[in-house]
Amino acid sequence: MGESGIAQANRLVGQYRGVTLALRQNKGMEEVHAYRIAARRLLALLALWRPLIHEPELERRLTRAVGTLSALRDA
Q1: Within 13 Å, how many C-alpha atoms sit on residue 32's CB side?
Q2: Is 12 exposed, middle or buried (0-12, 13-18, 19+ CB in 10 A)?
Q3: Angle at the Cα of 53 (from 47 to 59), degrees rounded to 5?
Q4: Tens digit of pLDDT for each residue in 42-59?
Q5: Per-residue pLDDT tens digits for 2-19
Q6: Can you give the pTM of this predicted structure?
Q7: Would you give the end-to-end CA distance of the chain in angstroms?
Q8: More confident position, 50 or 37
Q9: CA distances from 8 to 12, 27, 52, 68, 73 (A)
Q10: Contact yes or no for 6/18 (Cβ under 8 A)
Q11: What phi and psi values does residue 30 have, to the nearest 5 degrees?
């Protein structure tokens, strides 16, 4: 059986925190890639939960961060 929505959210937030810390310590290509993946997964989760919790500022900040790091990835 799959994990519950709360367990999935906790796992995704934990992954996001981990990759954010790794990115702050080392701004390499792999850290940027891992951050972008974790942030996009978190954005997808927020989109699914939007009827329950609507955090437009958090969604904007995550989207902006992914966009900013896209330029770094492409460089």
Answers
A1: 14
A2: middle
A3: 50
A4: 888 888 888 777 778 888
A5: 678 789 889 999 999 999
A6: 0.72
A7: 42
A8: 37
A9: 6, 27, 16, 26, 27
A10: no
A11: -70, -40
